[in-house]
């Protein structure tokens, strides 16, 4: 849950939540283009045993977009709720994305990005300051929104890497 990342060069710590939706949608389009550009023989292959295949990064992002929207809903609907941390490695392994249809996943990812963007655009005044505790860390709606964008930006690099794009 970050809005500054030295690894991928992302720094949107001053971007207001209201501006995140359109930017997220643009980055998500780049993700979809990158996935479609990965050579078929590399799409489902892990470069190393502990590094996800490109299609697994897409599956993770599909989950991540729904999770971020759900977190924002919880933070706005309740008074600083506590939400347990999730393990992305576990859920990606359980979903078996390497056996999934890539166009199905791209469609689901796109719909979840659009839903998250619409949700951000419709946030009531002051909602960006609503907060929750994820694991042991207090976070605001504004950070959750920027973090969703960072997820796409960060994994765009992971998806491009194995194909050398
Ligand atoms: Zn990053």
TrEMBL record:
Domain DinB-like: 23-155
Residues spanning the membrane: none
Pfam families linked: DinB_2 (PF12867)
Protein name as it appears in the record: DinB-like domain-containing protein
